[in-house]
Write a structure and sequence with these properties.
The complex is a heterodimer of chains A (248) and B (87). Chain A has a single domain, classed as lithium bound rotor ring of v- atpase (Four Helix Bundle (Hemerythrin (Met), subunit A), Up-down Bundle), CATH 1.20.120.610. Chain A contains 8 helices and no strands. Chain A is elongated, with a radius of gyration of 21 Å. With 87 residues, chain B is mainly alpha-helical. Chain B has one domain: F1FO ATP Synthase, CATH 1.20.20.10. Helices cover 91% and strands 0% of the residues of chain B. Chain B contains 3 helices and no strands. Classes of the chains: A mainly alpha (248), B mainly alpha (87).
């Protein structure tokens, strides 16, 4: 069980280390937009400050997913040293960490883009606050769906597959095939979540600005947002499908 | 290690590597199209906010551009499926 323990600790570190990058950048980037907005409309500062804090909390959300997986992996390491070695189990732990770690990069950074643009738009045009806030919340939720996919795959790897008795006792050769399979499953969903999350968030940030600038065209902007973001999401769904196909 | 065992190990390694390759293929292949399509849609929204009367033209161009951008994601999907089924 040495290999599995080692990779559980390695996965725990990678999950939180990589998972902090996107959210950290995103939460910081929200402030840049807020400062621009406050400089434009000094009278709106308290409202913009509240909005900034909400956006920062939403941008930090993906890193909480990474924290949860990291703690779970940490708890799974250091148990049952007498059980036989299993490369597949080790791969499942490492893949779970990598999946949620890489998968949250895009969503954290993306939520930052949305939040920054939303606060700045309200600063530019305070009367549009209600409309912009609604679009902002939709955009945040949508930009975080890819990282929720990666959280789900990570939990599947941990509990369904990495669970302590399932993989051990297989013959050596099946064990090697399964190790490649599980590592592929984690990397597929992890890396596949980055692009769509950034793409959807970019759409969301432009939508926040457009909603503030052109309230008359709200319906058209919303249509374009939904269709455009859905097309952008499709590659994340391909990655989810391939990832589930790879599940042994 | 005798010949039979070496062969079996080789087959297992090849199969494992093919499955790992399928995952990496679809994972990294999804990054580019996702970002690209998002940029296209974002700029379409910006254009529509400036000139709402050009909505249909902008929307059509956005969809065609996104379809072209999607093609590389579909190549990755096809290769990943080939690797899973034949690897």
């Amino acid at each position: 069980m040495d290999i599995a323990n080692l990779s559980a600790f390695l996965g725990a570190g990678l999950a939180m280390g990589l998972g902090a990058i996107g959210s950290g950048w995103g939460a910081g980037y929200v402030v840049t937009g807020s400062l621009n907005g406050m400089a434009r409309q000094p009278s709106e500062q308290p409202g913009l400050f509240r909005s900034m804090l909400i956006n920062q909390a939403l941008a930090s959300n993906p890193s909480i997913f990474a924290l949860v997986i990291s703690i779970l992996l940490y708890n799974m390491g250091g148990a049952d040293l007498d059980a036989p070695d299993s490369w597949a189990q080790a791969a499942a732990f490492l893949a779970a960490g990598l999946c949620v770690g890489i998968g949250t990069l895009g969503s954290g950074a993306g939520s930052g883009l949305v939040g920054s643009e939303a606060v700045e738009s309200v600063g530019r045009c305070p009367s549009s606050q209600g409309r912009v806030t609604m679009m902002m919340l939709i955009a945040h939720a949508w930009a975080q769906t890819p990282c929720i996919f990666s959280l789900v795959i990570s939990l599947v790897l941990l509990y369904v597959i990495g669970g302590f008795n399932q993989m051990v006792g297989q013959s050596n050769y099946i064990d090697i095939v399964n190790a490649g399979r599980l590592l592929g499953m984690g990397l597929c969903m992890g890396a596949g979540a980055v692009g769509p999350a950034i793409g959807i968030a970019f759409v969301g940030s432009r939508v926040c600005r457009a909603t503030a600038e052109a309230p008359d065209a709200l319906q058209k902007i919303r249509n374009t947002f939904f269709v455009g973001a859905a097309v952008s999401e499709s590659t994340a769904i391909y990655a989810l499908v391939i990832s589930l196909l790879l599940k042994p | 290690m005798d010949l039979e065992a070496a062969k079996a190990l080789g087959t297992a390694l090849t199969k494992g590597a093919a499955l790992l390759g399928a995952g990496i293929c679809m994972g990294f292949g999804a990054i580019g199209p996702g970002v690209g399509e998002g940029f296209a849609a974002g700029k379409a929204c910006e254009g529509i906010s400036r000139r709402p009367e050009e909505y249909s033209q902008l929307f059509r161009t956005m969809l065609i551009g996104q379809a072209v951008s999607e093609s590389t994601g579909i190549y990755s999907l096809v290769i990943a499926l080939l690797l899973i089924s034949n690897g």
